[in-house]
Structures are given as structure tokens and as C-alpha cells.
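Fig. S4 source data, part A: sequence.
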Amino acid sequence: HPEHGMFLLITGPNMGGKSVYIRQVALITLLSHVGSFVPASRAIVGLTDRIFTRVGASDELGRSQSTFMVEMTEAANILNNATASSLVILDEIGRGTSTYDGVSIAWAITEHLHDKVGCRTPFATHYHELAQLEESLKKFKNLRVCVRETPTGIVFLHRIEAGSADQSYGIHVAQRAGVPRPVLDRARTILADLEERHLLSNEQEGALIRRPKIIQGSLFASTDDPILASLRELDVAKFSSDQLLDLIIRWQKDLRKG
């Protein structure tokens, strides 16, 4: 819908339906362009020149490409060829590398597609840090997959609403998959510890950002300063202590003058 913006960031739990939601957008767009029926009582689909997808994650041993290399190759193809009339489907970016690298790459790709390309882009991700881009990007909107928490776990509602998710419920999904209880309990303990450390880290970073920057002045105006050059070439062994003291006093006077 137009009010949702051109770039939709979709967050939510694993198995919540994010991938299904964005892939159905691509399928409906394709069906409408070939004159077929679409699963809706009414639909308005803009003209699209190409559909680009970055979905799934697997390596290509035959080409000696890692999972991350495959992701980046597909992302590069999108960034180099998408136009304002294209539809770009992104299902996770940067999962094959470290968290900080992944977030940084996903962040930069988001800004490029929003600012430079201007194409319609639904992006499903677990990088909740990207949600703050809604404050700075005009056509960027956050959507989330709805869930209901119960005493025994979570219930997937398979509904999309405005806003961003604050967690991915990965441990809940692991529980449903049959992971042993001791492992789940240990995972919850580790998760709580990591979240606490992350909170403290954010508070420290915020303090550093708010603190005014102190610029340390250089002792000399530049590396070409004649006093600095003389000091570098000075052979202390050839001078007496009185001569060295005279040099220091003279240099000090020159510095005060200049």
C-alpha cells in the first residue's frame, strides 16, 4: 500500500512468515504482469521492469563460492542493475559473516536502494538495528510479523502490522524443534548475559557520543618546523650540558614568538 512506503523492513520471529510474505509479493507482481488472476479481491500493481531476488543461503562448491560470496554476488547484481521501476526482494543480507559486518552491509544496501535507486523493496531481516532508519529515510517503513506470547511458548498469528519487532524468538523455535531442555536453559542464560552486556555497551557508546570532542594540539606547527628538524639532527654527545640548556632556552623563545 502507498502509505507503507517504497522500502519495507519486515522483522519478526523465525517461522513467523516473513519470507512467505515477501515472496508472495514477487509472485503476485509476476502473475499480474502476465495477465493472470491474483489471490486478492482487488489489487493495484505498478508496472515493473524486472524482479530481483536475494533469497535463501547456500554455498556453491562447484564455483568455489562460500555462502557469503553467493550473497554478495547476488546483492551486487541488484545494486548494479535495479532501476526505480524494479521490484527487489531481500530475504536476509549478510548472514554469512560476522554480525557487525552483516549489519553494516545491510545498512549500506538499504540506504543505497532507498536513496539512489528508489525501487520498491520488501526486506525481511533479523537485524533489528535497521529499524531506526525509519527516522531518517522518508520512504522507509517498519513492518512486523505478529505473535502472541503464552505461558507455554509463542503463537504465530501470521499477520503483518506496522512497527518493528524487538526480538526473534529463536530459542522458542529451537524448543519447538525438539532441542534438549538443558541446552535451551543454557541458551536462555547466555542470551540474558549477552543482552545485558549489549545494553551496557550501548550506554557507554551513548556517553562517548555526547561527550564533546577534545582535540589534542600538536607540539609543533608542522613536521617541517625548523626547530623540530634541528632537534632530530642534534647529536647530544657533542654538546655540554650548558650548551644543551642554551639551545633549549633559544628554542623556547622562538616557540613563544611564533
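Fig. S4 source data, part B ends here. The beta strands are 7-11, 51-54, 87-91, 121-124, 140-150, 153-162.
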